[in-house]
Amino acid sequence: MTIPDVLRALSWKDALDFVLLYIVAYAALRLVRRTRALPVALSLLLLGALAGVVRWLDLIGTATVLRYFFESFILILIVVFRQELRRGLLLLGQRLMPTGTRGAAPGTAQEIVTAVDRLVRGHIGTLVVLQGRIDVVELASDPGRPVDAPVRADLLVALAIPHPANLSHDGATVLSGDRIVRAGLVCPLTQRTDLAPQFGTRHRGALGLSEDSDALVIAVSEERREVRVAERGEFTPPLSLAELHDRVEAFLGLGAAAASTGTAAPEAGTRMEGS
Fold it and tell me: Model's pTM, two decimal places?
């Protein structure tokens, strides 16, 4: 049978079946890329090839062991790829959720950016988590301490200042809308293996939390005096204050509100306050 004959024999159902299989395979590879799960997946494929060779050679003992192994294949996949499966379902759910405002008041973005500006100039590193619809406390290695206060630059700076009396400065400050809800939250670390050496525990925590939730995480580096945003498992390049302001407003759904009230974002490359 020639290739044209094969193509003529295919129905629209066969084409749909192929497209769906391609999408599933592509999504699976996207989930495991740059993680420790990829070597595990390759090992499982190698075992599958070995099982075929063993069956062809009629090696009864080895074939029996491998058969019992692959009878539990689904359970093995769930155990080995539980983080990737969870992340995939999470990403799917995020895309199905309606977008919209997160209940923040106008001016919240500027308070956050003002605090970040002070921390950068003061060589103080921190994480600021803008929580989405997923409760980040359920994902945290340590939930930190509850806080119930409005988002104010002074308070965000105070929570990040390293001091023996400040038990929350090593963790992340969590915002929900225009309220500070937690401080000292310890983020789950990403399992990615391709990150540059410059990214330490703080940045790995920011990336890990953004992989497992719909939060926007602002990472301030005290050494390089730069600001990055982690969202959906990816870091932005270093951001200026204006770029950070726009990113925060977009996440909080404040762009339209800011335009209607005449509030403008800080100009690119400028400081929120005088040096």
Answer: 0.65
